[in-house]
Specification:
The chain is an alpha+beta fold and 507 residues long. It is built from two helices and 33 strands. The protein has helices at residues 346-363, 390-506; strands at 17-19, 34-38, 41-49, 52-61, 66-69, 73-74, 93-94, 97-101, 104-108, 111-112, 121-125, 130-134, 137-138, 144-145, 148-152, 155-163, 168-176, 181-184, 199-203, 207-211, 223-227, 233-234, 239-240, 250-254, 257-261, 272-277, 282-288, 301-307, 310-316, 327-330, 367-370, 378-381, 386-388. The strands form eight sheets. Strands 13, 14, 15, 16, 17 and 18 form a six-stranded mixed beta sheet that branches. A hairpin with a 4-residue loop joins strand 4 and strand 5 (66-69). The chain starts with 16 loop residues before the first strand and ends with a helix.
Length: 507
């Protein structure tokens, strides 16, 4: 796309990716970098290329479509790694995450050549370009990369990742940005299996959604939801299009729609751009690109921008057999905004709507609430008339009873399943031990068989040698027999001659 106008975005078609024509030099191609869009500027930090970690900070201006390199003012190196060496303030790293908080960019985690035990939170001040490490306290998480980081109000929610020893994680930690105190969340029900390179979003400031990612050998296309009020994990069914498993994809939420781009499974990239309606949990394929397109890459980033009131998706980087440094934009078509319905029934929603309406009228000063009996709830208007909300309240109570009963049944079933899982796990552990024992015996038997085979081979060689010696002995015996046969006449003549001599001597 080539244009010199600052309102180039107005010519974009809806729901189609377009590569921007960039003026001036581009930054080095990369993947697994971190990205954040602030005031019409896309900030890119770090990443990886050809097995080498990067530490630069690049800025792309969406108005003039030009890149620039951000020069930072570094704090002194005050922290230490596990081997006692100084810790870099902004080390070359990949698999880290970056979010905007007030006038700062916060960088969390990531893999680098530095070895340290706890996760570091670094910052870039967007006014002074000062860079440093933020001091945190509380239950600080173990260092990791490939985790998800989501901002909810003044708190960061972090899930999963892979630590420096390549151990996979599925823990949930929260950082309060007002106090810089970490805490670990204790969740219930079955969490997602440990993973990294997944994506996360928060819906209605209550539900944390986790999609995709991978272990060291398995790629996922599952969706998990954590209710941040009850701390319950669930795995709801996704409606709509089926999608392939993927990791290294990117996601950004706009209102109730979660846009998911790229990713792959180490064999091929995911060409679809997906949109998940987080209220309906309905997934659709928005558009697709060709298999080798930069948007079908692992480790790319996607951010949300607003130009002149128009929402844009901005994608950068990634790897799909080659490293990319192109900038792509999409103008998503405005979609209907719905009320959260993830765990709401129609009856409860209707009843709640009635009570909410009554409460709104009361706040306006036009109504007064009175409570008559426990089962009655009426509103007295200024003209003296009353409106009875008892039916709505009773409906909510009955709905609540049904939900509590259902919840008790589900918890009982989950408890039973947990017991079966523990029993199966115990059986599996015993079988694993037995298998290891049998495998050890098998190795010993194989070693003994190898030694016996070597002895048999040696004996066969000796037997072949004995047969050869036996044949030589037979030949020698035949030669001896023939020689003895040839010597018999000479022996007879000698005996006759000797007899004559003795007779002469005797005579």
């Amino acid at each position: 796309m080539g244009t010199d106008s600052s309102d180039w975005h107005l010519a974009l078609n809806y729901d189609q990716w377009v590569a921007l024509s960039v003026s001036g030099p581009r930054p080095p191609a990369r993947y697994k970098h971190a990205a954040s869009l602030v005031d019409e500027k896309l900030y890119i930090t770090g990443g990886s290329r050809n097995g080498r970690y990067l530490s630069d900070v690049q800025v792309f201006d969406l108005r003039n479509l030009a890149w620039s390199t951000l020069k930072l003012n570094m704090e002194p190196k005050a922290d230490k790694t596990t081997d006692g060496s100084s810790l870099e303030v902004l080390p070359a790293s990949s698999g880290h995450r970056m979010i905007k908080w007030k006038n700062k960019l916060l960088l969390l985690g990531g893999h680098s050549k530095d070895n340290f035990d706890s996760l570091k939170v670094r910052f870039i001040d967007l006014e002074s370009y000062h860079c440093g490490v933020m001091e945190t306290s509380g239950k600080v998480p173990v260092a990791r990369g490939g985790q998800s980081v989501t901002l909810v109000g003044s708190k960061i929610i972090m899930f999963g990742g892979e630590d420096s020893q390549r151990r996979l994680l599925n823990d949930v930690h929260v950082l309060d940005l007002e106090t810089m105190i970490w805490c670990a969340l204790e969740t219930v029900q079955t969490p997602p299996v440990p993973r990294f390179d997944h994506i996360a979003a928060v819906h209605a400031e209550r539900y944390l959604l986790i999609f995709g990612g991978c272990s060291h050998s398995i790629f996922f296309n599952d969706l998990h939801v954590l209710d941040l009020q009850t701390m319950d994990w669930t795995q709801p069914q996704i409606q709509g299009d089926l999608v392939t498993a993927r990791a290294g994809h990117a996601g950004i939420a706009i209102d109730e729609n979660w846009y998911i781009v790229g990713g792959g499974d180490n064999r091929s990239g995911a060409p679809e751009t997906l949109v998940l309606n987080m209220s309906k949990l309905a997934l659709t394929v928005l558009t697709s690109v060709k298999g080798r397109d930069p948007l079908a890459s692992e480790g790319l980033s996607v951010s949300s921008a607003s130009l002149d009131g128009e929402k844009l998706l901005v994608a950068f980087g990634g790897y799909n057999g080659k490293y990319n440094n192109e900038v792509f934009v999409m103008r998503p078509k405005p979609r209907d905004s719905l009320h959260p319905k993830i765990f709401e029934s129609a009856a409860a929603a209707a009843a709640a709507a009635s009570v909410t309406a009554a409460y709104a009228l009361t706040k306006s000063g036009k109504l007064d609430f009175i409570k008559t009996e426990e089962s009655n709830f009426k509103v007295v208007q200024n003209d003296g008339s009353q409106q009875d909300f008892s039916l709505e309240i009773n409906a909510i109570r009955e709905e609540n009873k049904v939900l509590e009963s259902s919840l008790a049944e589900v918890r009982a079933e989950n408890s039973s399943l947990k017991g079966k899982i523990e029993e199966t796990s115990s059986t599996y552990t015993e079988l694993s031990k037995e298998l290891h024992s049998v495998q050890g015996q098998l190795v010993a038997e194989r070693s003994r068989c190898s030694k016996l085979e070597a002895q048999i081979t040696e004996l066969q060689r000796m037997l072949e040698s004995l047969q050869s010696i036996e044949e030589e002995v037979q030949v020698l015996r035949r030669q001896k027999s023939a020689l003895e046969h040839d010597m018999e006449p000479d022996a007879a003549v000698q005996r006759q001659s000797s007899g004559g001599v003795w007779r002469w001597i005797a005579g």
